[in-house]
Amino acid sequence: MIPPKGPVPGRHPALIQMFAEKGNRGLKSYNLQKLNVLLIEKNDFMRGIMREILRKFYIRNVQDADTPATGYTIFRKFPADLILADWVPGLDGLKFLKKARNGSDSPNPFVPIIVVTANTELHHVYAALDAGMHDFLAKPISATLIYSRICRVIEGHRDFIRTGNFFGPDRRRRHNAPLGPKSRRGPNKADGERRRSDHGAGQYWIDPALTEEDVQRLLIG
Fold first, then answer.
1. In angstroms, what CA-CA distances link 14 with 32, 36, 57, 140?
2. pTM for the complete prediction?
3. What is the per-residue pLDDT across 86-122, written as a single tens digit (0 to 9) for each?
4. What is the Cα 193 distance to its own chain's centre?
5. Beta strand pairing call for 36-40 and 82-87
6. DSSP 101
7. What is the helix (H) or strand (E) element at residue 202, kind and residue range?
8. Rounded Cα–Cα distance for residues 135 and 114 (Å)
9. Which of 2, 9, 105, 214 is the most buried (most CB within 10 A)?
10. Exposed / middle / buried, residue 26 (Cβ in 10 Å: 0-12, 13-18, 19+)
11. Of all helices (H) and strands (E), which one includes residue 73?
């Protein structure tokens, strides 16, 4: 099922229709009991931790896989409302993401997908955006971080766009936000060794990895 070109309303009704009330830490409290979650994670131990975190949120209907191929097979049969996709050497979460968005046999190209990874350099975030992710979760994870991403998917409605070879949520974000106390726009490397990342949003000299705060400043528009 390949959607037409141009803006398309996002479709994840199981998330949008959930009951909400004010909670702690600035996050709302949601009833997630009917949520269907697909978890794709290479590491058995980490997969177990994430399943337990989801169970603490009263999410009972969780399917998991340790490879993108297995994950996609499950995805074609399991009506997932949300997917958490690992991205590490040996498990290419972005490959799964692109197939879920653009595959002719994809059952739901609009499904919210959160990329979970320790790849946190700026070009990694952009690569995930360009593959069609909804959100980005940097490892190490915590229950609060996972819940905050679920909340953001529920609350942050974004139209889907098909343009050129891209299909996914609208990528327009706050790309010009300063990233970290030492990061600079432009070619000044006086603060230490940096790597240059060239992207349509601009040229950055960046530290080897972004902090969680940096990632959020970049993504929240």
1. 9, 9, 15, 28
2. 0.70
3. 888 777 888 899 999 999 999 999 999 999 988 777 8
4. 29
5. parallel
6. H
7. strand 202-206
8. 5
9. 214
10. exposed
11. helix 68-77
DSSP annotation string for 111-129: --EEEEES--SHHHHHHHH
CA distances 196 to 84, 122, 182, Å, are 29, 10, 14
User: CA–CA distance from 193 to each of 31, 122, 184, 189, 204 (Å)?
Assistant: 46, 15, 12, 7, 13
* Residues 47, 48, 49, 55, CA torsion sign: positive
DSSP 27: P
β pairing state of 28-30 and 20-22: antiparallel
- Amino acid letter, 96: F
Spatial separation of the C-alpha atoms in residues 136 and 114, rounded to whole Å: 6
Nearest alpha-carbon partner for 127 in 87, 159, 100: 87
Over residues 34-88, the pLDDT tens digits come to 999 999 999 999 999 999 999 999 999 999 999 999 999 999 999 999 999 988 8
Structural contact between residues 70 and 41, judged by C-beta atoms closer than 8 angstroms: no
SS (H, E, C) 127-162: HHHHHCCCEEEECCCCHHHHHHHHHHHHHCCCCEEE
**What domains appear along the chain, each with residue ranges and CATH number?**
13-169 (3.40.50.2300), 184-219 (no CATH)
Q: How many residues does the chain have?
A: 221
